[in-house]
C-alpha cells in the first residue's frame, strides 16, 4: 500500500508476479499469441513460487495441458482454474464479478485473472492478471492495475511519490466496456479462500 501526493492509495499484492511476455522473440522464451490464459496462469502462480512457475517453460507446459477452443484457437477460460487446481492451488472461475470481489482478493494477497476485451456478443478474448487497485482519499476505487502478458514491459510509469504495480491501468470508468465480469482468483491456502468467500458472500 502506498500513498500518492494527491491522496491516491495503492493496494497491491505482497509479492509481484514474474512478468512473462507472450510475444517475446528472445531465443530462450516461449512465443504464443493464443496463450494468454497459460501465460496469465503461470504469472499468477509465480506470486506464490516465482522460481517454479515464473518461467516461459511453465507457460508452454500449461498451454499444452489446457483444452483448446476448436477452430478459433486459444484456451477455454475454465482451464486457468483447472491448471491451478492440478498444481495444488484453490481456484474457480466466477462471473458477474464486482470491484469489491477483486479488491477483497488483492487485499488477501490473491492474484486474479480477468477475462477482458469482450466482443459484440460479450465474449472475452484476452486474459490478464489483476495485481492491484487504488482508491481516493475517501476510499472510492479509482483504477485497477493489471499485468498484461501482451505487453513487453513488466512495469509502468506512475506519478511522483507513488508506485503503480503491473504494466497497464484500467480506469474505473472504462471497466464496464473492458471487463466481461468473469474472473478467477488463485489461493494458496483454504483458510484464505474461505475468508474471501465470507467477505464477498461467494458460494
Q: How is the secondary structure organized here?
A:
Elements lengths: L1 E2 L5 E4 L23 H11 L3 H4 L2 H10 L12 H9 L3 E2 L7 H9 L4 E5 L9 E10 L5 E7 L20 E4 L3 H4 E9 L2 H11 L3
Antiparallel strand pairs: 1-2, 2-5, 3-8, 4-5, 4-8, 5-6, 6-7
Helix pairs in contact: 1-3, 1-4
The proportion of residues forming helix, as a percent range, comes to 25-40%
pLDDT averaged residue by residue? 95
Strand pairing plus helix content: what structural class? alpha+beta
What distance separates the N and C termini?
A: 29 Å
Supply Rg.
16 Å
CATH architecture: Alpha-Beta Complex
Name the beta content range: 15-25%
Number of domains: 1
In CATH, what is the class? Alpha Beta
What characteristic shape results from the CA principal axes?
globular
**Model regions low in confidence, pLDDT < 50 over at least 5 residues:** none
Most strands sheet: 8 strands, antiparallel
Counted beta strands: 8
CATH homolog superfamily: Cysteine proteinases
Task: Please trace the helix and strand order, writing H or E for each element.
Answer: EEHHHHEHEEEEHEH
Please count the helical segments: 7
CATH topology: Cathepsin B, Chain A
